[in-house]
Amino acid sequence: MVWCGIDLGSRNVKVALLNNDGVRYYKFDTIKFYREHGRLVNGKLQVDLESLLSVEEQIDTVVSTGYGRQTVNLAGARAIPEIKAHVLGAAYATGLTDFTLLDLGGQDSKVALVSGGRMVDFQTNDKCAASTGRYLENMADVLGISTEELSRYHENPVELTSTCAIFGETELIGRVVEGYSTASLAAGVNYTIFKRIRPMLQKLLSPVIVFTGGVAANTALRKIIRRELAVEVRVPPAPQYAGALGCCLAARREGENRG
Amino acid sequence: MKIGITTTVPVEIIYAAGHVPVDLNNIFITHNRPESLVEQAELAGYPRNVCAWIKGIYSTVLENKDIRTIIAVTQGDCSNTHALMETLELAGVTVIPFAYPFDRDADLLRLQMDKLMDRLGTDWTAVQRTKKYLDEVRSRVWEIDIMTWRDNLVSGWDNHLFQVNCSDFQGDPAKFAREADAFIKAQRQKEPDRQSIRLGYIGVPPIMDDLYDYLEERGARVVFNETQRQFTMPYGVDDLVEQYRLYTYPYGIFYRLKDILVELERRKLDGIIHYAQSFCYRQIEDLIVRQKINIPVLTLEGDKPNRLDARTKMRLDSFVEMLR
After folding, report:
1. Which residues lie in coiled coils (chain A) (predicted)?
2. What is the pLDDT of residues B140-153, one digit of tens each?
3. Nearest CB to A84; choose among B301, B315, B321
4. Which domains occur in chain A, in start order?
5. N or C terminus of chain A: which is more exposed, having fewer CB within 10 Å?
6. Interface of B with A in 274-293 (CB under 8 A)
7. CATH of domain B2-124
8. Closest Cα of chain B to A125: distance in Å?
9. ipTM score here?
10. pLDDT at A11
11. What pTM was estimated for this model as a whole?
12. Is the CB of residue B209 less than 8 Å from the CB of residue B187?
C-alpha cells in the first residue's frame, strides 16, 4: 500500500510517498511541474503520478495541499488546508504534541500553536511576502552569494529598515556601497526575516519551536531565533517536506478509515 | 432630494425632512465594477495606501450627479472622511458634517441632531413620528436576525444584506419592509441548519462579497454580524438620542466589545472573524480584540473590492478546520 501527499508550493511542488518501509520525497520546480506533467481535464489538474514518480505499486490515496490548491484542483486528490498539513507533518517528524510551528516557505510565513496534538491558534503573513524564502533568494542574488552561503551569517548585522522586499534590495546596495562586509550584510538580511516573523512568534510562543519549510535550512536564522527568544528550535529531517508528509499521513488515515 | 451619507447617521431626520438618504457605501459596493471606482480615485490623486471605501465613495459621488449633498460623519468614523469631505467640496458638493461625541455625551449628541434638523428643515415632532414608522420596518430585520442565530433559518449573507440596508432602507422603507416580509415568509419554510460551525463577524462590513458563501460551502455559518446589526438600531428604545447613544459603531472598541461579548454568549459562537480594512486605524484595535475575546479569532484584512484571494481562502480554511 502506498499513500501520496502533494504540497503545491509557490516555488516547488513537493511529493511524499509513504509505505510500510518508510517515506520517500520528490521535488519539482512548480512551473515545470504544471507545464510538463500536468494538463487540465474538466477544470482539474490531471497528473500521472505513478509514471512521474516511477512507482510500481498503485497509489492508494492522494491528499494535496499548498498555495496551488486554491487555484489548481488536483484530480483524484482530496485537499486539506496547508497549516493542518504542516502541523501533522511536524508533529509526526518530531514526535511532539506541544510546540509552536514556524513554517517559512517561498511566499509564506506561518506560525501555529499546537497543544495536545491539536492546532489551537495560528497566524500567517497576509498581503506581503517580504519575510519568506523568495526574499532571501533575491537578497543573496544582490550580494552575489548562494542562499547556503547567506545562511551562515548572524553576527554584527547591518540595520536594514525597508518594509518592502523590493526596496530592500536598493537599501542593501546602499549598504554595500558604504563598505560593510558580506558577513554583516548577510547577517542583516537574516535579521530582517526574524524581525518580520517575531510579532507572530511572540503571540504564539511555546518552549519549543519546530521550524519547517525551505527556509528552515537557514542555520543563521535558527541561531537568531534561539538567541533572541530563548527557546529550543527543532528542525525535523527534510523540513521542506513537512507539508507533503502531513498530506501522506492524512491520506493514510483516510485509507484506513475506508477500510 | 437625495442626500448621500458616508456611514449610518440619524436617518429619521433625513426622511422627516422629506429627503431620500443614500448610503454611499452601498452604491459603491453594488456598482458593477467597484474596483474601477477605486482606480478612478487613485487617478484623481488619492494615495494607493488609503482605505478603498473612502476612494470608492469619492468616485461614487462624482459619478452620481443626482447626489449633490452629503452628510459626512466627522467624529465616530475615520479621519480619512475629513479629506474626503474636502475633496468633494472642491468638486462642488455640499457637505453637511455630523459628529458623534467621543464620550457618548447625550447633550452634545442632541445638539448635533438639532443642528441637522435645522439644516434640513424639520423638527422633533416630525422626526419622532418617522422614528416610530422606521422602527416598525426595523423590527422585521430584528426578526431576520433572530431567525439567523436562534432558528438557524437564515444564511450569513442574507443576514448581512438585510441589516446593512437599514442604514438607508434603500431609499424606500415601505418597499424594503415588503421585501423583508416576503423573505421572512420564504425562510420559514426552510430546514434549519444546526450542523454548521457558528461564526461571529466583527468590524466593518467586508469589501469582498463572496466571504459568507465561501464559509458556508465549508460548513461554517456567520450567525452574528456585529456592525451590520448595529445599523438596525437593535435595542428598540423610544428616545432618539438614547438610540444613537446605544448604537456602538461610532464609540470606540471598548464600548463595542461590551455588545460583542454579550452576543458571543447568547449566540453560542465557536469563533470570530475580525475584519479590518487595509490601512484602517481599526487594524490597531485588533490587539485589544484579541485580548478581550476568549474564543478563537481570525483577523482578516481586505483591500480592494473583489473576490476572496487565494491567501485569504487558505486562512479561512485553516480557521474553520481548527474550529471543527
Report:
1. none
2. 999 999 999 999 99
3. B321
4. 2-84+241-258 (3.30.420.40)
5. C
6. 278, 290
7. 3.40.50.11890
8. 9
9. 0.80
10. 85
11. 0.89
12. no
